[in-house]
Amino acid sequence: MIKHTTQSPPVPTLPSLKPVEYLTLREQVTVSVRNALMNGHFEPGQIITVKAISTMLGASVMPAREAMNRLIAEGSLELRANRSVMVPILSRQEFDEITDLRCFVEGLAAAQAVKLVKPEHIARLKELDVEMRAAVSTSDVDAFLDRNFQFHFLIYRLGASSFVLSIIEKLWVRVGPLIRLCLNESGFADSNRVHSQVILGLETKDSAMLRKAINADITGAAQTIRVAHNAAAT
């Protein structure tokens, strides 16, 4: 007599899928305010209220308050003794340290992007460069800052890990409110020249040229900010 055994069917191996990204309203407000800080839409020392954030973004008070608390916790905003919330004011030492960190981390991310850049990325960078030059000709500072942000982070997202990218974003959040100070006539000209070198470095896959151009962009803007800040303080 043959004994039949019941065997369970093999468990199929599940495919590897990218997790679905879902952002809560609080996270959307947090991202929007963080991006505004990185793009220079707030000034150092500016007081920010929950009501102002909820009005600007068309959000209710609760997610705006939760977003501000999160930004305070990560150091992007500062809670003062009187409970008001302020865009942090950097000391000269803090600014110099951030500048040095940016040169290293952003230069590293850009150099690594050389291995992954594709023709469509180069084409988009050239489009952004043209748009930045157009913004300069019309003195549209907001448009310039927006395209400048897109230009840099297109490169950094190619070359940086998520961890390194988060560091770059934190540095930009701190220095972003100062960026407008470097947008004078010479600052615009220097930025346009350096961005051309960045594109050339990517096109020729010259990581040394690219890293040098990124560092020149950062240090040139930093020096203009220092001069403008000193002039404003006198």
Architecture overview:
- The chain is mainly α and 234 residues long.
- The chain has nine helices and three strands; from the N terminus they run αβααββαααααα.
- The protein has a three-stranded antiparallel sheet.
- A hairpin with a 5-residue loop joins strand 2 (78-79) and strand 3.
- Helix 4 (92-113) crosses helix 6 and helix 5 (119-137) runs antiparallel to helix 8 (185-203).
- 30% of the residues are buried.
- The model is unreliable at 14-21 (pLDDT under 50).
CATH class of the largest domain: Mainly Alpha
Structural class: mainly alpha
Largest sheet: 3 strands, antiparallel
Radius of gyration: 22 Å
SSE order, one letter for each helix or strand: HEHHEEHHHHHH
The CATH topology name of the largest domain reads Four Helix Bundle (Hemerythrin (Met), subunit A)
CA-based shape = globular
CATH superfamily of the largest domain: GntR ligand-binding domain-like
CATH architecture of the largest domain: Up-down Bundle
Average pLDDT, rounded to a whole number, is 85
| Distance linking N and C termini | 104 Å
Q: What is the number of helices?
A: 9
Would you report the number of β strands? 3
Low-confidence stretches: 14-21
Q: Name the strands of the widest sheet in spatial order.
A: 1-3-2
Report the sheet-strand fraction: under 5%
Portion of residues within helices: 55-70%
What's the structural domain tally? 2
